[in-house]
UniProtKB/TrEMBL annotation:
GO terms for molecular function: heme binding; iron ion binding; monooxygenase activity; oxidoreductase activity, acting on paired donors, with incorporation or reduction of molecular oxygen. The chain crosses the membrane at residues 21-47. Pfam families: p450. The keyword Iron applies. Heme binds at residue 460. InterPro entries: Cyt_P450, Cyt_P450_E_grp-I, Cyt_P450_sf, Cytochrome_P450_monoxygenase. This is Uncharacterized protein. Its cofactor is heme. It comes from the Eukaryota.
Length: 517
């Protein structure tokens, strides 16, 4: 009776709270639908509030772009998972201009000035760090995902492998495998149309396997994909799906439960295979000079790679040097066959520049001016990597393409959208090698916009090798065969999917051996 005259004790407060909890518990047990309604309401309130902040209050609110993309990661994730993000980015840039806000914290660029602003070292000699999707915090990350200091150390261990001298040493092995590639084409051409995309994959993977590990993958010998190729083709889609799921907490906590066991096993096999390949290369008693020669010599030294860095980087070099070259050759061939006048020009240049097939090598192809223009145009109209390699702005923000970008913003130049922008290239969907040869009709093209090997200190280390390999394979193919696109491949590029790299489909071509007379 005196409770109202005194301050409630701790016990009284505890009893009161427990009674309230008990009442709520009884309510919940008796009204599960009401609980679900409350939870749904809370989630809806959170999402609505967050979307409102992203659109109206976020530091990037003044940048152009669709409001739905600014409000949520859902559109961004959807187009990545469907493999159509490269096409959607092109559409958005055509509508909104050279810089578009494509996610709550992402800016996409087609302005050529953004290349240097994003990917080269700033005035303070600091790089913009890679976005989390392309970065690994592990001390044993390879050349792609490593931090700035580790990247420079690892790259320094491999750079001599791509020197002019090293390429001369490796040329006989490359030519030997190209010879086998031509032999296999002759054997299969008499049987009917061939899937030239598959042949390009066989050749480029065998070449890179030989240069990296001292032995090819045997694709041309067995005329079939090595298992590693299938893994490389399948893994990117899974990686993209997992990366997109990580954008949606708390769903990201479920990743380990949602990833199929087979995907995890494939990832482990991929890692173990690369480890085994490196160990076999190290164990060779009289190894030939190759990519690994220079890196192994400095292994586990202060200026060389660790064993794990060696394993990861060797696998990366094989993938980067083969998959992209095979994709480029496929796209190049398709566009040549869709433009007979360009094919005729290139064929005439090749067959008039050499007196015999043996004269075609990695040095002599440098004299083929039209061939170089064809390769450059193929890289523009069908870039081997059509997507975007994102970086993150520094703590103080950065000036990009003449405009300040707030800190911790993901920024990048979209390859496909940049190369198909009418602001950068006239007739962006036409295959016109002459634009690289001074044709006055294309004098206003912004040639600096084309950067398929990236720019800055993290650009592709194998650029010169890629050009030489592609031109040799192309020249040898056209020296030996006349080509005609089969009807089933007339729309080869339509609906192609990309998960960082292209999802390949057969490129059926009729090959007619050229008379040696």
């Amino acid at each position: 009776m005196f409770r109202g005259f005194f301050k409630p004790t701790l016990a009284d407060t505890y009893d009161s709270k427990m009674l309230t909890v008990a009442k709520i518990g009884v309510f919940v047990m008796g009204h599960p639908l009401e609980l679900l309604a409350w939870l749904f309401g809370l989630i809806l309130f959170y999402l609505t509030t967050k979307a409102f902040y992203n659109v109206a209050l976020h530091p990037l609110r003044s940048y152009p772009g669709p409001k739905l993309w600014a409000a949520s990661h859902i559109p961004w994730a959807y187009y990545h998972v469907t493999g159509d993000i490269y096409l959607e980015l092109e559409r958005l840039h055509r509508k909104y201009g050279p810089v578009v806000r494509v996610a709550p914290n992402n800016l996409s660029y087609t302005d050529p000035d953004a290349w240097n602003d994003i990917y080269t070292l700033g005035a303070d000699k600091q790089e913009l760090p890679k976005a989390s999707l392309f970065r690994s915090d592990s001390k044993d990350a390879g050349i792609i995902g490593s931090t700035w200091n580790n990247h420079q150390r690892i790259r320094g261990s491999f750079k001599n492998a791509f020197s002019t001298q090293a390429m001369k040493e490796q040329e006989p092995r490359i030519i030997s495998l190209v010879n086998l590639y031509i032999q296999r084409l002759h054997e299969h051409a008499i049987q009917g149309p061939v899937d030239l995309q598959a042949f390009y994959v066989y050749a480029t993977f065998d070449i890179m396997g030989d240069l990296a590990f001292g032995e090819s993958f045997g694709c041309l010998e067995g005329m079939k994909y090595h298992r590693w190729i299938n893994v490389i083709n399948d893994m990117p889609q899974a990686i993209v799906a997992i990366s997109m799921l990580n954008l949606f907490p708390p769903l990201n906590k479920l990743v380990s439960y949602l990833v199929p066991k087979s995907t995890l096993e494939t990832g482990r096999w991929h890692r173990d295979f690369a480890v085994d390949k490196v160990n076999r290369r190290i164990a060779q008693k009289e190894p030939r000079s190759d990519f690994m020669t220079y890196a192994i010599a400095n292994r586990d030294t202060p200026r060389g790679p660790t064993m794990r860095e060696l394993e990861v980087t060797a696998g990366t070099l094989v993938i980067a040097g083969s998959e992209t070259s095979a994709s480029l050759l496929g796209g190049l061939t398709f566009h040549l066959l869709k433009n007979p006048d360009k094919l005729a020009n290139l064929t005439a240049e090749i067959r008039s520049s050499f007196s015999s097939e043996s004269d075609i090598n990695m040095t002599s192809v440098n004299s083929l001016k039209y061939a170089l223009a064809v390769v450059d145009e193929a890289m523009r109209i069908f870039p081997p990597v059509p997507g975007t390699l994102y970086r993150v702005t520094n703590a103080g923000g950065n000036m990009i393409a003449g405009r300040y970008v707030p800190p911790n913003t993901d920024v990048g130049v979209a390859h496909w959208a940049t190369y198909h922008s009418p602001d950068n290239f006239k007739d962006p969907y036409k295959f016109v090698p002459e634009r690289w040869l001074g044709d006055p009709a294309y004098a206003n093209d912004n040639r600096h916009a084309l950067q398929p090997f990236q720019v800055g200190p993290r650009n592709c280390i194998g650029r010169n090798l890629a050009y030489a390999e592609i031109k040799v394979i192309l020249a040898r193919t056209l020296w030996n065969f006349d080509m005609q696109l089969c009807e089933e491949s007339e729309k080869w590029t339509e609906g192609l999917k990309s998960y960082f790299i292209w999802v390949k489909r057969p490129l059926m071509v009729k090959l007619t051996p050229v008379s040696k007379n």
